[in-house]
Amino acid sequence: MLAIMHSMMALMWAIVLLIIIIFLFAVIFILGAEDYVRGAEARDDLVWKIRQEFNSMPRVLLTLFAIVTGGLNWSNTEYVLRSISPFHGMLLLLYVSLMLLAMMNIVTGIFVNDAIESAQTDVDLQAQMEVERTSRVMDELKRLFREFDSDASGTITLEEFTEHLAHDGVKTILSVLEIEVADAIAFFEVLDVDSTQELDIDEFVMGCIYLKGAAKMVDMATLMREHKMMMSQSMKQVCKMEDRVVKLAEQLDCVVWILRKEQFSSPLPMSVEVPNHAPYSIETTTMA
């Protein structure tokens, strides 16, 4: 809304500038037309055309405005002025060129630039208002924290939190602050980011500001917290399993090494097949 108001002010100044320029050219054209009519013959056909298009100042202003806005074919007006004098014909060409090629673009640029600056100012104003609103919310949350902290210990326990949150007045204040609490215990656990079962003033204030909005934000925060806890526990279990697998692999390597050592250090039995006799074993002895 503020941007629109500033843009309207720029538009008003642009209209004033255009009126001044049109008025100056209109005065020159009327003076030239009067001089021609004063010295022309009564039967001159051009006099009738001049009196038709340049009979009054409002008529000339409207004609010049219609020329630059596309409401009138300016070739007829140029013919009349050129018939008065070549100077007035060239002056109309200068007027059209100045208005269409220069002034209109300049005015449009000023108008657009002012609108952009006003919009930026509007954004800055909204940001400032949001900062002030957040500051008021923080002050109110700090007051609630001091109210919740019954023993003035600087922290809020779960019992203190649920006890005060059961009051309708506290729920109304939180609702006005756009903080919806469906489950007091779940809300407390979400605010308790360090899992100490106690809330300090920073956890309470910043957590409530983060959870401003519908109750589903609390549910999402609860799910995120549980997900983080599950991921942490899973990573701990994975680390434990990796340690156990490494230890088992080391033990297995030791067992394999011992078995291989015993296999190569013990005597090897050898079976010999003797014709018409039962097989018997000959043990090889190691040389001393």
UniProtKB/TrEMBL annotation:
This protein's UniProt keywords: Calcium, Membrane, Transmembrane, Transmembrane helix
Keyword Calcium assigned: yes
Single annotated GO MF: calcium ion binding
Compartment(s) of residence: Membrane
Gene3D superfamilies membership: 1.10.287.70, EF-hand
Segments forming domain EF-hand: 136-171, 179-214
UniProt xrefs under InterPro entries: EF-hand-dom_pair (IPR011992), EF_Hand_1_Ca_BS (IPR018247), EF_hand_dom (IPR002048), Ion_trans_dom (IPR005821)
Superkingdom of the source species: Eukaryota
Annotated membrane topology: Multi-pass membrane protein
Membrane-spanning segments: 12-33, 54-72, 92-112
GO cellular component: a single term: membrane
Pfam families noted in UniProt: EF-hand_1, Ion_trans
Cell division in keyword set: no
Name of the featured protein: EF-hand domain-containing protein
Organism whose genome encodes this protein: Noctiluca scintillans (Sea sparkle)
